[in-house]
Amino acid sequence: MTASADSKTTDLAGRVLAGEALDNLPSQHFIDGTWQGSESGAMLDTYDPGCAEVWHQIPAGTAGDAEQAVASSQQAFEQWRKTTPAQRAEVMQNAARLIGENAERLAVIESLDCGKSLVDAEWDIGTVQKYLNYYAGAADKLEGDTIPLGPDMMSFNILEPVGVTTHIIPWNYPISTMFRGIAPALAVGCTAVVKPAETTSVSALVVAELLSKAGLPDGVCNVVTGLGAEVGAPLCQHPDVRHVTFTGSVPTGSAVMGMAAKNIASVTLELGGKSPAVVLADADIEAAAEDLVMAIYENAGQVCSAGSRLVIHRSVHQQFLEVFMAKARQLTIGHALRRPDVAAINSAQQLAKVAGYVDGAKARGLEVLMGGNVTTDPVSGKGWFYEPTLIYDVLHQDCIVQEEIFGPVLAVQLVDSDEQALSYANGTDFGLAACVYTRDITKALRMARDFDAGIITINQYFAGGVSTPFGGNKKSGFGREKGLEALRAYCRVKSITAKI
Ligand code: NAI
Ligand code: MG
Q1: Structural domains of the chain ordered from first start
Q2: How many Å lie between the centroid of ligand 2 and the Cα of residue 48?
Q3: Full-prediction pTM beyond 0.85?
Q4: Nearest to 421 by CA among 389, 405, 399, 443
Q5: Which residues, judged by CB distance below 6 Å to any ligand atom, belong to the binding site of ligand 1?
Q6: How far apart are CA 297 and CA 279, in angstroms?
Q7: 198 CA to middle of ligand 1, Å?
Q8: Which one of 51, 114, 221, 304 is the catalytic residue?
Q9: Nearest residue to 127 via CA among 148, 103, 153
Q10: Is-catalytic flag, 270?
Q11: Helices 202-213 and 174-188 sit at what angle, rounded to 10 degrees?
């Protein structure tokens, strides 16, 4: 038992840190309201990145499992689409309540599986509740239009659910990304098959059963686990799936779009980013520096919209970096259940990717002003961690600026004018988020207009919430999640016109 576990022996996280195993963890798919083993019987190990050890196993799903899940969701759709909006809202509100009652256990599970700080996992569970309540409230507000065609005609539009939807989930925000997709889908009357990432599947299985206990009919939300190519792909190319919501890498997103295209199914793609935080000369430098520390180091930079590029006016950069690095050097690193500021890296593979980018930068002679090393949990000496890192004065064409690293690595780009800042901000293949720091609101709004990105913030990097649309331009994808915008993906318009 560690010192920090000692002080927490009254709560679940403390007991788990001290060696207690969580009981009743699911190790089967959740299909049609019941637990079901994989057709193949094969299992996959899932790791706790905070100590790099296997902590549980999940089913290695197959095309046969995917087929069963889609068939169940297709059947359930015929029932769920006929429920009233109020009935759907009630189930979703029940689910939000039940998830709240299970929040401590869910957060510990999410922390262990992802490596993310328990602080962040608790926030994510709260976000899940917000998604459920927000979209429950939207269920009875899906109003259509009337179209004036003259006195002897009557024409109106109604919104219908598209049908079975597939949700392919990444490993950085597993449970909150799942509900970002399924909450609007369920609210409009669609059914959902969820395929979590193979390294972070446990929370999706736990929550699938909670949805069922909240009153969600069997098959309305099925969860199957396993590798993307083996069970994810069949869920994207199944002819009965009408929409695929995907969050992950650009190559996999492109492949998913190709699979859905075979059936003319629609897709929402939320892919990566290389999002700029632009600090102009007149910004509140201290406030900007404090804000940007977590814009890049939260969840160890494994955030699609992370502020991974600092585009800063040369005249203020020294003052900025002093404040930024002083604060960043105080960040704690460690096992998720010790509530660190900086989380573990989710897999050995991802850690190698991050280290590879920084080692390459060093080899090219770039200046690493802070961090730049693989590290471990300071208590156990184990786990997959990377130091908060800052790479100084990087050329715009360098891969450290152009490619998504998905780790705690900030690239600093110095500029001499606002025009150059904008040109650098827009100068990558991505277009997910962009933030500008300035005291001049006209400048800020002009930049907001000119940024080529889907999510713009001013003077606070992660401003917004479940009600603000989220999604990107260019290779960051298309379609918008969150907010009322998200409902569009799960509805189709039917126009009805009568001669009277
Ligand atoms: P990935 O895009 O391959 O995985 C994301 C999800 O897609 C997982 O659930 C995976 O099982 C599934 N998947 C993989 N192949 C599939 C296929 N053929 N058909 C259907 N589903 C499939 O990403 P990966 O390899 O885990 O991470 C690689 C990089 O992707 C990261 O380093 C990061 O740059 C980026 N990424 C971006 C995320 C974002 O939030 N936009 C989230 C996760 C990763
Ligand atoms: Mg794991």
Answers
A1: 10-271+477-496 (3.40.605.10), 276-465 (3.40.309.10)
A2: 5
A3: yes
A4: 443
A5: 168-172, 195, 197-198, 228-229, 232-233, 236, 247-249, 252, 255-256, 270-272, 304, 350, 353, 404, 406
A6: 18
A7: 10
A8: 304
A9: 103
A10: yes
A11: 30
How many angstroms does the Cα of residue 114 sit away from the middle of ligand 2? 5
Catalytic residue among 270, 387, 404, 481: 270
Per residue of the chain (500 residues), give pLDDT as tens. 344 444 444 599 999 999 999 999 999 999 999 999 999 999 999 999 999 999 999 999 999 999 999 999 999 999 999 999 999 999 999 999 999 999 999 999 999 999 999 999 999 999 999 999 999 999 999 999 999 999 999 999 999 999 999 999 999 999 999 999 999 999 999 999 999 999 999 999 999 999 999 999 999 999 999 999 999 999 999 999 999 999 999 999 999 999 999 999 999 999 999 999 999 999 999 999 999 999 999 999 999 999 999 999 999 999 999 999 999 999 999 999 999 999 999 999 999 999 999 999 999 999 999 999 999 999 999 999 999 999 999 999 999 999 999 999 999 999 999 999 999 999 999 999 999 999 999 999 999 999 999 999 999 999 999 999 999 999 999 999 999 999 999 999 999 999 99
What's the CA-to-centroid distance between 52 and ligand 2, angstroms? 9
Q: Which ligand is nearest to the CA of 180?
A: 1
| CB contact at 8 A, 486 and 469 | yes
| H-type alpha helices, 409-480 | 418-425, 441-450
**What is the distance, to the nearest Å, from the Cα of residue 104 to the centroid of all Cα atoms in its chain?**
20
